[in-house]
Amino acid sequence: MATVELRFSAQPEHVRTARLVAAAVARRAGVDEAVLDEVRLAVGEACSRAVGLHRSHGITEPVSVVLTEEEKAFSIEVGDGVPGPGSDPATPGAHGASGGPDEGDSGEDEMGLAVISGLVDDVEVRSGAGGGTIRMSWPTALATVHP
Questions:
Q1: What beta strand segments (E) does 73-112 contain?
Q2: How far apart, in whole angstroms, are the C-alpha atoms of residue 136 and residue 116?
Q3: Of 90, 91, 67, which is closest to residue 79 (Cα–Cα)?
Q4: Which residues make Cβ contacts (< 8 Å) with residue 49, sequence separation at least 6?
Q5: Most buried residue, 26, 27, 64, 91, by most Cβ within 10 Å?
Q6: 56-66 pLDDT, tens per residue?
Q7: Which pLDDT value is given to residue 132?
Q8: The whole model's pTM is what?
């Protein structure tokens, strides 16, 4: 199982780099060429969402992207540092990674999640005290024998 980890400051200009890295690693992992645009778009949406959450909640830690090549699948986890529901309500930004009722940009957040769900068949959104994670995975081609 090969893993690539990427961490970047919550600046919109870094999202493009994350998309490019994700597409390159997905290609190397054996994700079908026809699906690479979906990988790029989904990673772009997830990273843009994480950047927006960090900026709106004053989170200074980096956004994390973990790309994992498994035997028959390729997965990407995009993590944000925004505490989720059940966290200490006195903590700044404890509205949750999927948007809370007091959050002004929750409509934009929901739209991003809807786009990701439309692009990726296997997607999981989690949030907790340490932040939120969007995990996406795609099948890879069966291992081929190289001469």
A1: 73-79
A2: 9
A3: 67
A4: 78, 80, 109, 112, 113, 134
A5: 26
A6: 999 999 999 99
A7: 94
A8: 0.81
